[in-house]
Amino acid sequence: MSRAARLGRILAAAAVVAAALVALPPAADAQVTGGCSATVAGQDANAAHNVRSAVKVGENDTIVVTGTAPGPITGYKVYLTFGPARFQVADETVSDGRTAWTSTVNVRDYSRYGVGLYRVEGDTTGTVCTGWAYVKVTGPFPLFTVAGAVGGLLMIGGGVGMALSRPRKVKVGPQGVIA
Amino acid sequence: MKGHRVRGAISGLVFGLGLAILLQQFAIVPLTTLVLVLVPLGTALIGLAIGWPRSPSGATRRAS
User: Fold this and answer.
1) Which of B1, B13, B31 to mutate to test the interface with A (most CBs of A within 10 A)?
2) Within-domain flag for A51
3) Residue A100's CB: how many other CB atoms inside 10 A?
4) Is A99 a member of any domain?
5) By residue range, what is the domain housing residue A128?
6) What whole-number distance in Å separates Cα of residue A133 and Cα of residue B38?
7) Partner-chain contact A119 B50, CB within 8 Å
8) Rounded distance, CA A37 to CA A130, Å?
9) A167 in helix, strand or coil?
């Protein structure tokens, strides 16, 4: 294979990655369902539906998450998602027939592991509602966090492995193939 | 020319996992399951392409 063809193949593969990223479905407009409303750090959760409109919080902040339902709720839960993993950051059982709830989340408990963009999800029982919002945690340089360091090491290891997988010439000596 | 397709693909997968995490950490894209699948899959393809064996004449053959 010529050098140009090889480059073309690599570029084609890179184009697949780029196309996949571009084709990612946009977030749905109706983030908070069930006739409820919710706020994260004072901002409407429905407005924080993409990277640009994410709610910005500092690494040491304590954020207040609130929700209002059209009817009485029996409980609520708040989650932080990281890929397929979902971590519960707050929950409460409600028994007094309230229609609104308030919860605080200490960002510091989680920012030590990583910063960046997270999806915060919440749901209620009784009057069933679900909602989510993007939260952007700012703080230390990402590579100095646990998740950032792991990501950086994986990239370096993978990059070295990819470089070592490049084809090399097979030397043929009098005894046959040497390497 | 002897290539290492499997090594390339696995390395690409590892590279992509790291890239997906860093994209989230730098707040470029959220780390959704879709991102966690597509990015490593794409870089695994790139790794596969890099490790694909080739002969100087332009013909492709299987790696031994």
Assistant:
1) B31
2) yes
3) 12
4) yes
5) 27-140
6) 22
7) no
8) 10
9) coil
Contact: B3, A166; criterion CB under 8 Å: yes
**What's the complex ipTM?**
0.83
CA distance A179 to chain B (A): 9
Check if B40 contacts A (Cβ < 8 Å): no
How far is it, in rounded angstroms, from Cα A89 to Cα A79? 5
- B18 and A160 within 8 Å at the Cβ level: the answer is no
Q: Which 8-state DSSP code applies to residue A121?
A: E
Contacts of B49 in chain A (CB under 8 A): 6, 9-10, 12-13
Query: What is the domain count for chain A?
Result: 1
Say yes or no for a CB contact (<8 Å) between A83 and B31: yes
Q: Are B31 and A82 in contact (CB under 8 A)?
A: yes
CATH number at residue A75: 2.60.40.10
Write down the pTM of the prediction.
0.77
Confidence of residue A158 (pLDDT cuts 50, 70, 90): very high
